[in-house]
Amino acid sequence: MASNVTQLKTNIDHWEDRVDLACAFRWTAKLNMHEAVANHHSLAVSDDGRKFLLNPNGRHFSRIRASELLLLDADDADTMKQPGAPDATAWDLHSAIHRNVPGARCILHVHSKYSLALACLADSTLPPIDQNTMRFYNRIIIDDAFDGMGLGDEAERVSHAFRDNPGKTVMIMGNHGVMIIGPSVAWAFDELYYFEKAAETYITALSTGRPLRIASHEVAEKTCQQWIDYPGMGNLHFNELKSMLDTDEPDYRR
């Protein structure tokens, strides 16, 4: 195993980026936030953010390896004509965001259970009812203009929503799912994990039919800022996820 990994590192560019993204795919599946062979994650690997890694078409998240991630150019209009082309919605959405939102180094998109349930509500606002929901206070874009799968003009529209709302890194995609953008895989995956937990808490609380205990604006803002200022949480979390995979599923690094 070690010699194979060493050889792959020599032959394939952006190796550590590939390992991080492969880890994110594996844990998305292990946490049951995946959907068959759909959904997609990407990671920019060039300084301008326009060259990026993306999952291959039809590959289950639980089996993705670092070496098989596609290296794509957001400006290459012929991408979908080439052998081994990615899923069309994955290409359109991720290439549009990598072109139009320079700060979106990592993009994670899923139709996870509770985030999708939130996206299906007429009011998809996530109220500040616990620490996790307060983490995202005033940091969410609620997109209520769904116009079909993320192809063509729809992909451009989604990318412009991120571009036009700087500082907001989570999008509740009405009738669709959730999308996270961020500076690294570790940061974005930590956001995705906690957002799904926050949505689960809210949907579960709603299911009781009882009144919600909603924090004040001041407390919600204070708690959100405490999350932002908390040092290294995303990296600590993600390092542990990689360590567990190194023990249980080391082939993700191949």
Shape: globular
SSE arrangement, N to C: HHEEEHEHHEHEEHHH
Helix % is 40-55%
Instruction: Give the N-to-C terminal Cα separation.
Output: 8 Å
**C-alpha Rg (nearest Å):** 18 Å
β-strand amount: 5-15%
Indicate the low-confidence ranges by residue numbers: 1-11
Can you summarize the main beta sheet? Answer: 7 strands, mixed
- Total DSSP E strands: 7
- Which class best fits the helix and strand makeup? alpha+beta
Main sheet: strand order: 3-2-1-4-7-6-5
Number of helices: 9
Average pLDDT value?
A: 93
Tell me about this structure.
The protein is of the alpha+beta class and 254 residues long. It has nine helices and seven strands, in the order H-H-E-E-E-H-E-H-H-E-H-E-E-H-H-H. A seven-stranded mixed sheet has the order 3-2-1-4-7-6-5, sandwiched between helices. Helix 3 (88-100) packs parallel to helix 6 (153-163), helix 4 packs across helix 7 and helix 7 crosses helix 9 (233-248). The longest helix has 23 residues, at 185-207. The chain is globular and about 55 Å long. The N and C termini lie close together (8 Å). The model is unreliable at 1-11 (pLDDT under 50).
Question: How are the elements arranged and paired?
Answer:
Elements: H1 2-11, H2 15-30, E1 40-44, E2 51-54, E3 70-73, H3 88-100, E4 106-110, H4 113-119, H5 131-135, E5 140-143, H6 153-163, E6 170-173, E7 177-182, H7 185-207, H8 217-229, H9 233-248
Parallel strand pairs: 5-6
Antiparallel strand pairs: 1-2, 1-4, 2-3, 4-7, 6-7
Helix pairs in contact: 3-6, 4-7, 7-9
At a glance:
The protein is α+β, with helices and mostly antiparallel strands. Helix content is 45%, strand content 13%. The longest helix has 23 residues.
